[in-house]
Amino acid sequence: MALSARLDLRQSQNLVMTPQLQQAIKLLQFNNLELTEFVEAELEQNPLLERDDGDGPATLEALEADNLAAYDKAVEGEGAAPEGAGDSGWDDAPDGPDIVDRTTSESLPAGAEDPGDSDYDNNWGSAGVEETDPSVTPTLGSWEAAAGSGSGRGGDDLPGIEESVGGLKTLREHLLEQIALDISRPDERIIAADLLDQLDDAGYLTGDLEEVADRLGAELEAVETVLGKLQALDPPGIFARSLSECLALQLKDRNRLDPAIQALLDNLPLLAKRDMPALLKVCGVDAEDLTEMVEEIRSLNPKPGLAFEPDTSEPVVPDVLVRAAPDGSWVVELNPDTLPRVLVNNAYLSQISRTPKNKADREYLSECHQSANWLVRSLHQRATTILKVSGEIVRQQDAFFQHGIQYLRPLVLRDIAEAIEMHESTVSRVTSNKFMATPRGIYELKYFFTSAIASSAGGDALSAEAVRFKIKKLIDEEPPNKVLSDDRIVEILRGEGVDIARRTIAKYREAMRIPSSVQRRREKSMGI
Q1: How far apart are CA 405 and CA 468, in angstroms?
Q2: Nearest Cα residue to 318 out of 498, 143, 438
Q3: Which of 224, 223, 254 is nearest to 236 (CA)?
Q4: How many domains does the chain divide into?
Q5: In 382-449, where do the E strands start and end?
Q6: Average pLDDT, the chain
Q7: 31 vs 37: CA distance, rounded Å
Q8: Could you tell me the residue range of the domain that residue 455 belongs to?
C-alpha cells in the first residue's frame, strides 16, 4: 500500500460559542448584585464606558426609550457591535416600548403611605436631646463613652442622630458596663474578661472552666464564683453552658424556678418529642400544670445574646415590579434601581483618536470600543428578555394575583418558552435568583413554576403549591376533638376534585413541618 499526500474538501457546520456569547449568557443569569459588581468592574477597566447619572426612569416606557437611545449612540461613529455580540440566541427587541399585555383583574390594592418615611428634623436641640420618635432611640456605644458623657459637652458638641443610631451597644459592651459596676476585685475582673472572650453570639459560654483555671493560674472555685456573678447579669440567661441552664437562669430571674419545672428542663428531649405521659410522670404534676409550665418555657428566649447583635440579613431587592393599573389590569415593569445604566463615551474616543498612535494603542482602543458597545447591547437585551418572561408569567398566573395562592396554576418552563418563542434554557436562566414584587408580596420567579396534581373529576389540574395550601388550611381549622388523619385529608381533597395519594399528603405535610395526626391530637388535648 503506497502512502501519498492529497487534498480533500469537506463541508461541515459547527456551533461556536464565542467568548462574548458566553459572557452574554452569564450576564443573563446574574442577579442584580452580581450584575452591579460586573458593571462596576467594566467601568473601572474600560475608559470608554461612563455611568449614566441621570434620574432613573419612572416608567418602563422611559426605560426602554433610554436603552434604545443608548444603543443607537453606541453603534454610531467608529466601529460596530462586536462580531458575535448579537448572536446570543435571544430574540431581537420588538419595535416600540416593551410593556406586557395587560390582563384583567377584579380588584385593586389600596395605596398606602411608605412606612419608612420619617422626619428627623429638629431631633437634636442646642441645649440637649429633645423628644423624638420612640422608635429612634440614641444610645452610646460603650460604658467608657457613657462615663465620659458628663464631661461638660453640650450644645453643638452633642452627637448627631446618625452617630447615635450607628453606635448601638453590642453584647460585649453591654456586659462590660455591668462587669465594671458589679465586679470590683482585679483578679475576678481578669477571670470575667477571659470568660467574656469565650461567649458566642447567642450568649452561651463555649469554654471549659477547668481550662480557664489552668490558663489563669486560679482556683476552679474562684472561676465558678465569677461565673455565678456573670450569670446574674442582664440579659437573663447569659453565660449559660446549655439550653436547659439558659432557660433555668431566665426562670430564676422571674422567680418561677421550682422543682417541677426544673425536672421539665432536665428532660427537654421528651418535650421535643411531645411525650406528654412521660413528662407527667417525671414532673409529678397534672395535665393543667404541665401545660402552664410548657407555656412558661415557650415565653423564654433560648438565645438571649442575639438581641444585641445587628440583623445582617439583607432585604430582597425585586428585579420586576407588578402593579395594578387604574383600568383593573396588571402592569409589569423592570425595577430601574437594579439596572445599571452605562453609555459609550464616543466624544472621548473621537478626541483621543485625533492624536497619532502606534499599533498597540489602536488595537487597545478598538477592543475597548467593541467591549463597550457589546455591554450596552447586552444590558438592553437582558432587560428585554427578563421583561418578556415576567410578563408571560403574570399573564398565565393572573388568577393567583386576583384571588390568592389557592388559584395558582401548574406551570413549567416549557410553557413560558413556547409562549414567548425562546429556548427553555433561556427561561431557566432568567428565572434564577430573580424576584418579583407584587401586591401579594415578593416572590422568586421560580415560585410560579410548580408541578401539576390531577383532578379527580377530569377538570383542570391544580398546582402542588395550591394543594399544600389546602392541606395546611384543613389542618389549621381542624377542631381539637376531631384531628384529621392523612386518609381523611385524602377523602376531603378528592371530594373537592383533587386526585392525590396518602403518601403525597404525608410528604407535603412533613415538608411544611406539620406533625402527624397522633402528635397533633396529643398536643391539642394538652392545650399546646
Answers
A1: 10
A2: 438
A3: 254
A4: 3
A5: 435-438, 441-444
A6: 75
A7: 10
A8: 450-525
Indicate if the alpha-carbon torsion angle 508, 512, 515, 520 is positive or negative: negative
From 308, 342, 358, give the residue that closes a domain: 308
Min mean pLDDT across 25-39, 55-69, 235-249, 288-302 is at 55-69
pLDDT digits (tens, 9 = 90+) for 380-419: 888 889 999 999 999 988 888 888 888 888 888 898 999 9
Distances (CA, A) of 321 to 167, 338, 362, 399: 35, 11, 43, 18
Peptide bond before 235: cis, by omega within 30 degrees of 0?
yes
Which of 291, 308, 325 is the endpoint of a domain?
308
C-alpha cell at 51: 455611568
Q: Where does the pLDDT of residue 87 fall: very low under 50, low under 70, confident under 90, or very high at 90 and above? A: very low
DSSP-derived pairing of the beta strands 320-324 and 330-334: antiparallel
Residues 321 and 372 in one domain: yes
What pLDDT is stored for residue 393 in this prediction? 92
Which string of b and e fits 164-188 if b means at least 16 CB within 10 Å?
beebebebebbbbbbbeeebeeeeb
87 or 263: which carries more pLDDT confidence? 263
CB 59 within 8 A of CB 321: no
Amino acid type, 178: Q
Collapsing DSSP to helix, strand or coil, 86 comes out as coil
